[in-house]
Amino acid sequence: xxxxxxxxxxxxxxxxxxxxxxxxxxxxxxxxxxxxxxxxxxxxxxxxxxxxxxxxxxxxxxxxxxxxxxxxxxxxxxxxxxxxxxxxxxxxxxxxxxxxxxxxxxxxxxxxxxxxxxxxxxxxxxxxxxxxxxxxxxxxxxxxxxxxxxxxxxxxxxxxxxxxxxxxxxxxxxxxxxxxxxxxxxxxxxxxxxxxxxxxxxxxxxxxx
Length: 209
What we know:
The protein is mostly beta strands. Strands 1, 2, 3, 4, 5, 6, 7, 8, 11 and 12 form a ten-stranded antiparallel β-sheet that branches. Strands 9-10 form a two-stranded antiparallel sheet. The chain is about 10% helix and about 60% strand. It is elongated, with a radius of gyration of 23 Å.
């Protein structure tokens, strides 16, 4: 029996603890307290998604903003902010009785800014005639994933997943690194016990910051 899952909308958000500490109405104190702190916020939105036992796809969009204010002597501000959108699709098939293989592809577009300014840079920008379009970069990448599930018997399963094969380079807007994840699961066949014991090891090569 084949089952299907269709999702119309999805939303999620994350932010750094430092954002919650912003509360002073004194601008001087607020700026002084901000030096050396990271401020981060992310919002995720997924559109139409479809999943079955062998194929799936989803459309997504998310926005990220990351601000770091550093160096109280010569203040500098690093701003990384971009919108990311695209789609992801994948399929899986049985290669043999003991081996399943899945492949996926993602088409991702990033549009945004990743700059560091000193106070003199900001003054120069204000004194010159510039368009915000001069600061914004847009780039796209096609990303591939592959995964295998090895189940030699009814009670044991081994998995390896390679995501973002070869890295996804968006130039000055950053890199999505290649990740290697491992997994193991065992399903005890003792009578009266119905549970799964699983262990995952994420990012085997420590590629993600």
